[in-house]
Write a sequence for this structure.
């Protein structure tokens, strides 16, 4: 994970001014009644020990 920037859902919410619950739903997906909504995208960290984090490649 060296060279990967890491951000929590809360940090992304702060930077983007989007409520944290909404950011979390986009990353994790959610259920409403009998309907299940999948995540909008998979984090590059989804297979890491930090699957609920956002990352970006370090662009040295």
């Amino acid at each position: 994970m060296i060279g990967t920037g890491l951000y929590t859902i809360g940090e992304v919410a702060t930077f983007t001014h989007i409520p944290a619950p909404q950011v979390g739903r986009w990353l994790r997906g959610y259920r409403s009644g009998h309907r299940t909504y999948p995540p909008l995208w998979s984090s590059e960290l989804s297979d890491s020990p930090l699957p609920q984090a956002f990352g970006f490649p370090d662009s040295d």
